[in-house]
Design brief:
Layout (H helix, E strand, L loop, with lengths): L1 H14 L15 E3 L2 H10 L5 E5 L12 H4 L3 E3 L3 H7 L3 E5 L4 H9 L3 E5 L5 H15 L2 H18 L6 E6 L11 H8 L2 E3 H4 L10 H6 L4 E4 L9 H4 L5 E4 L10 H13 L1
Parallel strand pairs: 1-2, 1-4, 2-3, 4-5, 6-7, 6-8, 8-9
Helix pairs in contact: 1-4, 2-6, 6-7, 7-12
Length: about 270
């Protein structure tokens, strides 16, 4: 009984965050997204009323991969089984890191779960866009977004000499050469400084090594103090630019914004 009361209360709280359409008026299956990358894609490929809630990450300026003003049009959840059950979706979209206990609970309750992996290329991301659009029953919306990604990719192509570029992330780490952002950098006219020095995904690059072997450009994707160290300002010819961390980790519509930003920097 207590569980039922808690569930009903949660449903009331979530309903107060948005004004959902009546179920019979929704064009396609209803969906709850627990993954910030699927949040951004589903917001583009679903019909009004389909996307019942997105992950709490997308409401956090430090973790979102979509514009906050867009994210706040949707309710969010912390990903608990109780919150999802209160929303009664047809489908849950989660990351491939969904805890086994949570996945098992959804299975026992008869809730369909689809998982989304990490896109490591533009082609991977376009496949995910089409996959989620098909899941929502709106393949046309998926083709539209995939087409816009392709157009941005074609516009960003650069054949001149690449700029030796260090993409420095929060904590002083660097991206790997097989990551989506590395592919976008290379395509847009930037050579990944860290990869040329044998550093892989998540490797730590200390300031001392940067000063001893500086790149031409530092793309700063955090407010890490080492990025504003006065010693960097004394390196001849070294240029600094900011790169929004929201553009680093997910594909989908963030690819378009990332490519546009790289074109501005170049």
């Amino acid at each position: 009984m207590r569980w039922l009361v808690a569930t009903l209360l949660m449903a009331g709280l979530l309903a107060g965050c948005a004004q959902p359409l009546p179920r019979e008026a929704v064009d396609g299956p209803t969906i709850v997204s627990l993954n910030p990358c699927s949040d951004a894609i589903l917001a583009e490929v679903t019909a009004p009323g389909q996307l019942l809630a997105i992950s709490h990450y997308s409401h956090d300026p430090r973790a979102t991969s979509m514009p906050l003003e867009q994210a706040r049009l949707y309710s969010s959840t912390g990903g608990t089984v109780e919150e999802v059950l209160a929303l009664d979706p047809d489908i849950v979209v989660a990351s491939s890191f969904l805890p086994p206990a949570t996945a098992a609970a959804f299975a026992r309750l008869g809730i369909r779960v689809e998982t989304l992996g990490i896109a490591t290329s533009v082609a991977d991301s376009q496949h995910q866009v089409r996959q989620l659009a098909a899941l929502a029953g709106h393949e046309d919306k998926g083709e539209d977004l995939a087409g816009r990604i392709a157009a941005a990719w074609n516009s960003a192509a650069f054949s001149g000499p690449p700029i030796d570029t260090l993409l420095w992330q929060d904590g002083g780490i660097v991206p790997g050469p097989d990551s989506l952002i590395a592919q976008m950098l290379e395509h847009s006219g930037f050579a990944l400084h860290s990869a040329a020095r044998g550093l892989g995904q998540g490797a730590y690059l200390p300031l001392e090594r940067v000063l001893a072997d500086p790149p031409e450009l530092v793309l700063a994707s955090s407010d890490e103090r080492l990025l504003s160290h006065p010693a960097l300002g004394r390196v001849p010819g070294l240029r600094h630019e900011q790169f929004d961390p929201a553009l680093l980790y997910c594909g989908g519509p963030s690819i378009i914004a990332a490519l546009e930003r790289l074109a501005e920097v170049r």
